[in-house]
Amino acid sequence: MNYLFPIIAACLVPVATALLGWFIHHLAASTFFNRILPARQQALAQQIGAFAGQQLSFSTIKSKLTDPDKIKNIIPLVEAHLDTFLREKLPKAMPVLSMFIGDSIVNQIKSHLVAELDTLFPVMINQYLDNVEKDLNIEKMITDKIAGISAEQLQQISRQMLGDGIAGFKLLGALTGFCCGLVALLFLIIF
After folding, report:
1. Is residue 19 pLDDT above 70, yes or no?
2. Per the domain annotation, does 86 fall within a domain?
3. Cα 177 from Cα 191, distance rounded (Å)
4. Quick check: is 8 in a domain?
5. C-alpha closest to that of 113 among 138, 88, 84, 142
6. How many domains does the chain have?
């Protein structure tokens, strides 16, 4: 019976060090999410905002919004509004005109207006976006949004994103602890 105690004790060393390794990694993950991440939230927000500002330039957004194909997709909507305006709203606002405006005149006016708007839209949109660009700071917007997230939300989002990674980190701690226990046991046996 006395010979079993050293064997059991020897087997407990790797198990105890595995539990210790898991606990240390658990403590490290907890410290990261509860203390380090909230304390560094402002710096993190600034770095993410700066990165997003570099990656997402306003000129890229502007080129997407002023793409001629995108503008041409607006034309049918404008044409439908013009048709409603010329056939219904204008005669109600100016009843005298309804005596002179028929379908052919409405279609002519509409086609000329649509052609004019087709050339006017890109200019209008460009000018509008130039004005927006002066007031829009993508880096600051993203920084403010991230900095405005509560510490609890930031922790929750981080834990959701890193869920499997956290579990793997803790298992790595247990595995490392187990290996360290085996090495320590080997040294005890050898020396």
Report:
1. yes
2. yes
3. 21
4. no
5. 84
6. 1
